[in-house]
Amino acid sequence: MPKVVMTFPEGKYKVLTMSYDDGRAADRRLVDIFNSNGIKGTFHINSGLFGTGDRIPENEVAELYEGHEISAHTLTHPTIARSPKEQLVHEVMEDRKNLEKIAGYTVRGMSYPNGSYNTYIKEILPYLGIEYSRTVNSTGNFSIPDDFLEWNPTCHHNKGLMKLADNFVQLHKKQYLYMMYVWGHSYEFDNDQNWDVIETFCEYIGNRGDIWYATNIEIIDYINAFRSLKFAADSQFVYNPSALSVWLSVDEKIVEVKGGAQVCLAEEEGAVIGLEP
């Protein structure tokens, strides 16, 4: 029986994702930094506050965040754990509707405004089309969460970022999957006058061949695609019913299972690893 484990795309075992809230003007500079270093971000936006103060105006959103993920942050940023369920539904659904008109795709994720959530909210969100939501509870580690509706990041960008980045880059044990998840608000770099923090980090960790740079929803979709794979009882072959390719390590050989394909996983007469039958 072949030994089969999931990898990230192209056989990678490390993923970096960035998460920034509120859609403020400083996102313009932050997006430029990400783009220059091949890094992807998820930007959680309150669509009911477009253009107020220094928030990005509605007509700029689609172009600014192209290539990144536009995600929900509720309509007006209330403390939702103190809100009635009717307000919660309104805040999430109206934010989704507004953002989807701009983005042109289904908005399926969010971050909790003011870090506010509880078990009741987590139970409701899937019925509102939300598949993940980020907290503000940093773990300091690189683990993959069990509960994506309580997605705890690795760190805020002001908390030991470069030490964690160096630890992440040095990881080499391929029997594990690692995720570095950084969160914050772009306006904090203006307030703290420390843009060098994120510039240095992105220059150091970006454009590396062994790291997958992904948005939050890309990670969700990839893991779901892996979970949807249909393996033979003896793992001799696998069928991928999803549209996404999934990469596997099969006896330490990297195999791509393309969307809609069935692939042999064991070397035996008439079956070659990685080839469709």
From TrEMBL:
The protein's name: Polysaccharide deacetylase
Highest taxon of source: Bacteria
Record keywords: Signal
Pfam families tied to this protein: Polysacc_deac_1
Keyword Protein biosynthesis (UniProt): no
PANTHER family per the UniProt record, alphabetical: CHITOOLIGOSACCHARIDE DEACETYLASE, PTHR34216
One of the GO biological process terms: carbohydrate metabolic process
InterPro entries per record: Glyco_hydro/deAcase_b/a-brl, NODB_dom, Polysacch_Deacetylase
NodB homology domain: residues covered: 12-214
One MF term in the entry's GO annotations: hydrolase activity, acting on carbon-nitrogen (but not peptide) bonds
Keyword Signal among record annotations: yes
Source organism of this protein record: Mesobacillus foraminis
Lineage of origin: Bacteria, Bacillati, Bacillota, Bacilli, Bacillales
Residues annotated as transmembrane: none
